[in-house]
Design brief:
Elements (H helix, E strand, L loop, with lengths): L8 E5 L8 E2 L10 E10 L3 E10 L7 E2 L5 E2 L1 E10 L2 E11 L11 E9 L3 E11 L8 E9 L7 E2 L3 E8 L7 E2 L2 E5 L4 E2 L5 E9 L1 H5 L4 E10 L5 E12 L3 E9 L6 E10 L5 E11 L8 H5 L14 H10 L6 H10 L5 H15 L4 H19 L10 H9 L4 E5 L8 E8 L5 E8 L9 E5 L10 H5 L20 H8 L3
Parallel strand pairs: 16-22
Antiparallel strand pairs: 1-9, 2-3, 3-4, 4-9, 5-6, 7-8, 7-10, 10-11, 12-17, 13-15, 13-17, 14-15, 17-20, 18-19, 18-21, 21-22, 23-24, 24-25, 25-26
Length: about 500
């Protein structure tokens, strides 16, 4: 497959709101609203490459009449890929919207591109602006990504979420595995969405296993917070070793509760050893599926540690402590029932919560966690909030103590800030960071400004906010920090100590 920068492929679709991989413009009337996601792949002939999926909300751009008397918008897009400050691929193109008979309405549209890349850490920059808005300035966002496709190892591509598909009649940029795949730009699935469709590829199984060897591909959904695999959401497929094998499937998620999840794809050899692995975070909103009192009261608390907590106010506070490590259903239940349920119901909920974390020693799991809560309450309590309710306290309780903390409280141009670095999280994410800052160090109230952890607040222009201390009118849409700004924060972020 010869890769190049394709002519923009445009097709119409409905805008889906929700948690996105990257939000690259403000969601306001007549302010460009653009959503970006991507997947990485590998070609045995041409090496690693990336597919980008850019969705523009039609009602967020300006329109003008074209030569046919129809109304149409124009968006300028620049995509730049750098490795060690060297540009390795680049494209600049004008993206036109679908046409409309009215100046007030135009359909949302998607642009899909492919770019050849190399292995390593790549800085992906996208610049975008409305060409018909005379006051528009380029909106710029940066997204680091890692390409790691080794010919000597089995690897699994990025996982592309699919909105819909049809059999390929004329091959094009949307075509994969005999189907034309319309990408789903968002990783948020609202209540109205009943299917999760996905596409991925397994590479180099023949190099590791030999020719015509059988191996197994498993696809499954796991709970993000606990890593628990959901037994009702597992798919298996037998494969024969090859340069490229296709993984294309779907799950019925109509009964999947609200929550944070990973879609996981694994390749196993004949000894059931995992030889390839990848996963993708997604979020589900499904309020009709709730944790009910009946679910909770099925548990028995006789002779349990939960049954020995007899003061209801104490138990309520203990349940509040659980929020940083709770899933959506557990949070929803506690918010609905914490104040109105009786002591026995709360005891049963508390026991169920810890039994699901550690079926053998739920009391020990609770006491270990309580020790951590007491620590963050001592370290991070503010005049308004106890430590476990602050951003630093929540992150500490959810992910554990960081491997390093870089503190900077006295930089002349910056608000006081801390950068936390984790070598590896329990859910498998590696080399992850959190940036906290405060406008008033006296209060000890540090807010989360940015993290590269999946599911957390992501703001790759965090330094522009951090350095507004010296100039509160600083235009965060500008591309570069002033000279001298950001030296320490950049160093602390890139080289944690």
């Amino acid at each position: 497959m010869k890769l190049k920068n394709y002519t923009p492929q445009i097709f119409t679709g409905l805008l889906i709101l929700g948690m996105l991989f990257v939000v690259i413009a403000d969601i306001q009337a007549q302010k460009l609203n653009a959503l970006l996601s991507y997947s990485t792949f590998y070609s045995p002939q041409d090496g690693p490459y990336i597919e980008t999926y850019l969705k523009i909300s039609g009602n967020s751009i300006h329109l003008e009449k074209n030569e046919d008397g129809k109304y149409q918008g124009k968006v300028q897009v620049i995509m730049i890929f750098k490795k060690n400050d060297t540009v390795i691929n680049y494209d600049k193109y004008e993206l036109k919207s679908p046409v409309s008979d009215s100046i007030n309405t135009v359909s949302s549209f998607i642009d899909q591109q492919r770019f050849s890349l190399t292995n390593g850490i790549i800085n992906f920059e996208i610049q975008i602006w409305d060409l018909l808005d005379t006051l528009s300035k380029p909106y710029i966002t940066l997204q680091p990504l890692t390409m790691n496709y080794n010919k000597d190892e089995v690897s699994i591509s990025g996982i592309e979420l699919v909105e819909s598909y049809s059999k390929t009649e004329t091959p094009g940029i949307l075509s994969r595995g005999g189907y034309d795949l319309v990408p789903n730009i968002t990783n948020f699935y609202p209540e109205s969405a009943n299917k999760l469709i996905y596409y991925s590829e397994v590479y180099n199984s023949g190099n590791l296993l030999g020719s015509d060897e059988k191996y197994l591909v498993s696809s499954y959904i796991q709970i993000l917070e606990t890593g628990k695999t959901l037994q009702d959401y597992i798919r298996y497929k037998k494969e024969i070793s090859n340069d490229v094998s296709i993984v294309f499937g779907e799950f019925d998620i109509s009964k999947l509760p609200s929550g944070n999840y990973n879609l996981v794809i694994e390749a196993h050899d004949k000894n059931n050893k995992i030889i390839g692995f990848n996963k993708l975070f997604f979020q589900r909103s499904n309020p009709k599926i709730q944790l009910t009192v009946d679910d909770v009261t099925a548990n028995k608390v006789d002779n349990s540690f939960a049954g020995r907590i007899t003061d209801i106010d104490t138990l309520r506070e203990y349940i509040r402590y659980l929020e940083p490590i709770s899933n959506f259903q557990e949070i929803s239940f506690s918010q609905s029932h914490l104040e109105k349920s009786d002591l026995l119901t709360l005891q049963k909920f508390f026991l169920m919560f810890w039994s699901q974390r550690d079926a053998l020693e739920p009391q020990k799991a609770w006491l270990d966690y309580l020790e951590q809560v007491n620590m963050v309450n001592m370290a991070y309590t503010t005049p308004i909030y106890k430590g476990y309710k602050t951003d630093r306290g929540r992150v500490y309780l959810k992910y554990g103590p960081p491997n390093s903390i870089s503190e900077s409280y006295n930089e002349p141009a910056a608000y006081p800030y801390e950068i936390w670095h984790y070598y590896e999280l329990a859910n498998g994410q590696r080399n992850k960071k959190f940036v906290f800052y405060t406008r008033d160090i006296v209060t000890n109230d540090f807010a989360l400004l940015h993290s590269d952890v999946v599911g957390e607040l992501s703001n790759y222009r965090w330094q522009y906010f951090l350095f507004q201390r010296v100039d509160s009118g600083w235009d965060i849409d500008r591309n570069l920090l002033p000279d001298g700004w950001g030296a320490s924060s950049t160093d602390y972020y890139n080289n944690p100590r």
